[in-house]
Amino acid sequence: MSLNLTGITLTYPDGDSRLTALDQVSLDVPRGSLTAIAGPSGSGKSSLLAVAATLITPDTGTVTIDGTDTTGMTRRQLTDLRRHKIGIVFQQPNLLSSLTAAEQLQVMAQIDGRSPGKARGKALDLLDAVGLAGEARRRPHQLSGGQRQRVNIARALMNDPTVLLIDEPTSALDHDRGAAVIDLITRLTHQQATATVLVTHDRAHLTAVDQIAEVADGRLTESRRLQPSRLA
Known about the structure:
Blueprint: E1 3-14, E2 17-29, E3 33-38, H1 45-52, E4 60-65, E5 68-69, H2 75-85, E6 86-89, H3 101-111, H4 116-129, H5 145-156, E7 163-167, H6 175-192, E8 195-200, E9 211-216, E10 219-225
Parallel strand pairs: 3-8, 3-9, 6-7, 7-8
Antiparallel strand pairs: 1-2, 1-4, 4-5, 9-10
């Protein structure tokens, strides 16, 4: 398993008491598979994604990334883990307006100390993989919403993560563009062999995922695999 959550409980202060956001949640996501986290607003989906990303430390339970138990890690260790093992696609692309599509990706590799030449080559390969080979020199204002989201996804893959976490990637897109983005995520998950978690409230595009985990009131109420695993 590349991503394993075991017995995750997360609470927040709420006046004199505490509000339970996640209640004994366990989830396994193998490499090369796509799991959708579905549920209504306020059900705990975003909290689950933040815990999986090691951005929030749970009250109890363990998060294991590519065989590494993150319990007790320092902030610096968690930052290094995210940089090398986890790709995060936030709901809004948040691209830098002054950078081209290729440069959005290159800066990620340069932060990690890779040479500019290798970074550009990798960036162009990923833009090609997401169908934007001809848009490498365009800046965000020259791209459509769907194209910006594709750059966002490619950027998250720049450092070859084993775990890919995606938050509501279709929320700002129409049906056809949303379907295209989900198809892209599905294809890249299998090509890049990532353990991918997709948080969504839109069930219209979930027919191609490998597993759906239903979350309600902070509890994982059901987890079902929709089709045979395509893992080798």
